[in-house]
Design brief:
Chains A, B: Pfam families: DGOK. The structure is a homodimer. The first copy, chain A, has about 325 residues and is α/β, with parallel strands linked by helices. The first copy, chain A, has eleven helices and 16 strands. Chain A folds into two domains: about 150 residues, Nucleotidyltransferase, domain 5; about 120 residues, Nucleotidyltransferase, domain 5 (2-Layer Sandwich), CATH 3.30.420.
């Protein structure tokens, strides 16, 4: 089966490449560690020319052989590759943003082999505290397209990660989103704060410790907020109530618990209703499973997982941009 | 004037030594960097004996000459020197705790020169999320003694630092306290997270940036909590609304603002009143000045600074322990 599109999800620390056929069917996919902060450095010859540019080298590693086999394949990419530190900056589009808005705003950069890489812009929400995303917009649009029919008014799309995004959608548009730095804060506290010193890491997932952290965040003790409750990961250790091996997942549960609790509060406030929206989670399955536990404990009753969000979103964006003939759309 | 007591405030990263005379008058004081995590390592002869113990070496550097001049001087010490990682563990005393409780529970360790160092125990609050302090208890008791007459029911004593403590007192006792890891979180985020990458540090204090961070934390935008608002230190930079040099103090204001906002909420809840207590701050003057700004913005109307808290507290504790004849008490 002939490929129709190469789709790249090119972030800070990783690069995922998809070879897609008619209808967006995945023919092959690859995962590389050549994110924009970890580009290859060893020069080599590409398309007959010596090349030392990290973006060119990573691009060639990711899909050079696919392009050799089918030289005319269009290429689309999302993620930090379009940031100011990326290959070519693709200026943010403002909310509300849909597939057509973003698909019509791709920023092309010509690679050394003469192929254009079409970069999806990120999305910016110009609220008092502005919010930005790069890469997540493709995933959200991929999930939205697949839902077909759900207008999104009762839906919240969650993308857990270093910087979790919670995205409100309406009629195919990204209309509002919040960011939580939970994942990165967990990482820096574990690696660089006093909380990490007593942690024994590397064990299997300790669900009881995780749930205990969530419960503390959701309890009346949690109302004082994470800047204070975090200290319990140490003090419960000092009193012998929390073992060293339980401390990492307790801390994870505490932080994710505070996040979902704040999210529930913000959602009820914005919707002016006690009713909480349905949730679709996109991302790493182990992390999504942690969020499922915490969301459930917090009263989010309808939580499901979005599949193949990135490749579906990039396929739709490539269609909207005219990179693929509409006759091949499905 | 003859000295009556050597008082040591011996923490994780620093050691402060005071030579005190009748009435607790300070004859001389020294500040060393030999906290328990930074002890000296070079062996030398102390009191005629070769010595390689870091605690002995630091103790001798801090006040060996004072003891040479007056060999019979009693020595009292508070802080992390009494922790499990310290010179000798002084088990926590439970809340409520006053000068007599702590003064009667000193833990002596005999130094190589034959002098006993009397270590003040820390205080533990065995609530569902336990809380602990070491060193701050001496400072709180020093301030309390000096207040004389104020029973403390309308008073909250704040000790800003890596781990801020907010201490409720009643009739000379420490009855309740909360910990916020604000200072350490600011440090690890600035040094190790993405927020630090765009910060330009080292400038003079930017009061406008600090106040702006405080206002965000106290505003309706701040209700979503610090895990989310922290991202604005990056996103406001991306939109050109916050300069690189303003980012450190904005982040500081944001975190301290979230702390005092949570504190006000917790205090109103605990006191079942909209009325906020008077505050006495103890600590580094630049940090106290930041907290004064944030507390004022948050509606704490009566804030003052506690002076000489450590040396006064250690003097009172030494008196209670009988290390000093009562006739010299004032």
């Amino acid at each position: 089966m002939l490929a129709q599109l190469i789709a790249l999800d090119w972030g800070t620390t990783s690069l995922r490449a998809y070879k897609l056929a008619e209808g967006g069917q995945v023919l092959e996919q690859r995962s590389l560690s050549t994110g924009i902060m970890q580009l290859p450095r060893t020069p080599r010859v590409i398309a007959g020319q010596p090349c030392a540019d990290g973006f060119e080298l990573a691009f060639d590693e990711a899909c050079g052989d696919w392009l050799d086999a089918q030289p005319g394949l269009p290429v689309i990419a999302c993620g930090m590759v379009g940031s100011a530190q990326g290959w070519c900056e693709a200026a943010y589009r403002e909310t509300p943003a849909n597939v057509a808005d973003l698909g019509n705003s791709l920023q092309a950069v010509r690679s050394i082999r003469g192929v254009d890489v079409h970069i999806v812009p990120g999305v910016i929400q110009r609220s008092r505290l502005p919010n930005v995303m790069r890469g997540e917009e493709a995933q959200v649009l991929g999930v939205l397209h697949h839902l077909a029919g759900n207008s999104g008014g009762d839906l919240l799309i969650g993308l857990p990660g270093s910087h979790s995004k919670w995205v409100e959608v309406a009629e195919g548009c990204i209309v509002h989103f919040d960011t939580f730095m939970t994942g990165e804060i967990f990482a820096v506290l574990s690696e660089h704060s006093i909380l990490g010193r007593t942690q024994q890491r590397g064990g299997s997932f300790d669900g009881d410790a995780f749930d205990r952290g969530v419960q503390v965040a959701l309890s009346s003790d949690g109302e004082i907020g994470p800047l204070s409750t975090l200290f319990s990961a140490r003090s419960l250790g000092l009193t012998g109530e929390l073992s060293a091996s339980a401390q990492p997942d307790y801390l994870s549960g505490l932080l994710i618990g505070h996040e979902v609790c704040a999210l529930a509060h913000a959602q009820r406030h914005r919707r002016n209703s006690v009713h909480l929206p349905s949730i679709i989670l996109i991302g790493n399955s182990q992390l999504c499973s942690r969020y499922c536990r915490a969301l459930d404990a917090c009263g989010f009753a309808r939580v499901s997982l979005g599949e193949q969000a990135t490749e579906r979103g990039l396929w739709q964006l490539a269609l909207a941009a005219g990179l693929i003939p509409p006759t091949l759309s499905r």
